[in-house]
Amino acid sequence: MVKIDRVALAQQLKYPGVKISTLGELFKFAQCVDSKRVIEWNIESKINPEEVTATRGVNDFVTLQHKAFTTSGYKLSKITVSVL
To answer: Using CA atoms, how far apart are residues 47 and 50, in angstroms rounded to an integer?
Structure first.
């Protein structure tokens, strides 16, 4: 079971209506400071297997995520994924 740090969550800033960047947009933005692709990424993914319409299905999600990783320009060894 994952413990949630409620104090840390309460300190997060909220910006209603702001769109969350896609992985592709994030990798493209990182090019500005990491043209040599040396950043090591730790990507945390979340899906909801209990409410199947709340997120994409597992296979679709993994396929799209893998596509974003392989087209990012980073070696896959630079990308770690945690699924919650």
So the answer is: 9
φ/ψ (deg, to 5) at 24: -60, -45
Amino acid at 7: V
Rounded CA separation 34/25 (Å): 14
Contacts of residues 76-80 at CB distance under 8 Å and 24 or more positions apart, as own/partner, are 78/37, 78/38, 78/39, 78/40, 78/41, 79/40, 79/41, 79/43, 80/40, 80/41, 80/42, 80/43
Tell me the pTM: 0.72
pLDDT digit string (tens) for 7-58? 666 677 778 888 889 999 999 999 999 999 999 999 988 877 777 787 777 8
Name 65's Cβ contacts closer than 8 Å, sequence gap at least 6.
23, 43, 45, 81
